[in-house]
Batch of 2 targets.
Target 1
Amino acid sequence: MQEIKDYLSENASRFEQELIEFLKIPTISADSKYQADVIRGAEFVRKQLADIGFDAETIETEGYPIVFGSWEGVPGAPTVLVYGHYDVQPPDPLDQWISPPFEPEIREGKVYARGATDDKGQMFTHIKSVEAWLKTTGRLPVNVKFVIEGEEEVGSENLDRFLEANRKKVRSDVAVISDTSQYAPGLPAITYGLRGILAAEIRLTGPDRDLHSGMFGGSVANPANVLASLVASLHNEQGRVQIPGFYDAVVELTQEEREGFAKLPFDEAAALGKIGVEDPQGEAGFSTLERRWARPTCDVNGLVSGYTGEGPKTIVPSTATAKISCRLVPDQNPRELTESLERFLADQIPPGIRFEFIDYHGCEAIVFTTESRFMSAAKGAIEAAFGTTPVMIREGGSIPVVGTFRDVLGIDTLLLGWGQNTDNLHSPNEHFSIDDFHRGTNASAHLWQLLADGSPT
Ligand code: BES
Ligand code: ZN
């Protein structure tokens, strides 16, 4: 291991430079204006893998390419599937970035850029640890396959199709993903559960153009007013989601798990203070961590209607749209609940308003067993690199492919987050600590050895 660790420290600043080059590519999958850049991002990853001696290719899909790379030099040893995503979220609101989102800048030991932690920086740690092994020893202790996609932030649907059609090619014993967070600075974590999601958009149309609100207001349905009442109908006063059947399949937390969450060090006031919030809010009867990790929710992600420029303008808008997503927990079914949501809203539409519903994507929640030899290996790797035993946590975000790995490939995933939940993912000024980047790379280098131990190599 010493040789490998030396390689990692000798090459640390080059790794940072390469990450910076990667972060300059605006791989925004949700916005078709960036199509050429997203494809350039795939090529960047393919070349990284090819340069370190992997068989690497970009595979076309109906959407963005999937980068596939493999090194299978130890027959009989376990095969590890490393997943990551090279696409990023839109960087808006742009005026809140201190340095532009695709001009990476290092400030106080952190690299600032969209995708720094989610997921370019975290995913890069595995490429660099594999490089260190191959360049120093000419081998890896396990077989490794990389599947790096460009549509995670828009639901991974083409990836699901690829995995179903290529079971043999991607066959592996366990998956590894670094696209979650540590529990807190200095306290790394293994995430054993993620929430699922359903994402949709509703569009309301009233009059066929914006109208003078003095001439027409009060005599025609106003789509913005209607949208506001639809949004208000999603929750009751106890914070419970009102979509019929929403809670029917929810697996309640066990007492043991609730106690586990409660034992984690959590200074609620400080945690909320960091995001500019004074009082926690949500479903009555649950703690903040329970609400974030193990309760289903429904949030408006964006609302657009009428005049939003400077100063007043007296109109009845023609249209109103809302983007909505619900986070799901075991055993809620995203498809069924998307239909319930659509029906629930459609039933409330008054005469004079046309209702359209766009189903964007969905995936199920997942919870893994915390006892397995793979989990023990992950724990050992984190201990070796971070000098601390990781805590076992659930998280509230979603990574759609994790359920597909379970259902299609029959494998569990080790969710090993190197980032912090204060890294501003999906927010302005996303960043990733350079120290976390290097610790993550180190942990990854240990992981290959520990996953191999006990196997016939
Ligand atoms: N890295 C996140 C997932 C995540 C965030 C896990 C925070 C745990 C804590 C991932 O890239 C992501 O943002 N996923 C999307 C998926 C969705 C668009 C299908 C999400 O959760 O919104
Ligand atoms: Zn994300």
Target 2
Amino acid sequence: MKRVLLKLSGEALAGEQKRGFDEATVTEVAKQIKTIVDEGLQVGIVIGGGNFWRGRTSGAMDRSKADQIGMLATIMNCIYVSDICRYVGLKTEVFTPFVCGAFTTLYSKDAVEESFAEGKVVFFAGGTGHPYFSTDTATVLRAVEIGADAILLAKAVDGIYDSDPKVNPDAKKYDEISIDEVVAKKLAAMDLTASIMCMEQKMPMLVFGLDEKDSIVNTVHGKFSGTK
Ligand code: UDP
């Protein structure tokens, strides 16, 4: 693999407390990113927003407005993780699909290519820029646009299961599953819009648990225990 798109859920940044940021957790993730970047891999990153806000669960609000707050949450997350990545010695750039003044760079494929050529880790913040979408969809969209070799989907659970392992103790984990089957069975790896795009574009995806030690590095090195 030469270029990957890493998706981190918002909750993954929050550690035990489930809200906001946990610096130790994020520093650990940043060090793993440094390891794979130092080995020559180009890394793009999309981060969810669930540690701050989930637009779709806010029933009292207009969905578009709630989703705008969700997209802004993903920008806060990217600014934070980008800065911790700099702290561990990486160069970074945060892109958004809409203007955020001097905080971020406006997304364009050319600008992203320049950034990769300069050895930077590239953050895709702000989702797709549109309500009714998710950062999962933004992940597949950007992965396809930048020609990533694979999506690395780091989750709170360690792979794709036939039912929710938090609810069903007998849930079975798949070592390997086609995205067609994920879509047909509506398995909760990604939301359906993102899964269908992944299927149409034949984008490979590796799903693993972020909690496991060195899981990002191990996944890149082929020592993989999640779902392919
Ligand atoms: N969001 C959006 N459009 C996008 C990406 C995200 O409107 O393209 C909003 C949406 O409200 C979502 C929130 O940002 O709930 C956080 O994104 P994430 O994909 O993490 O959603 P979650 O799965 O945490 O609800």
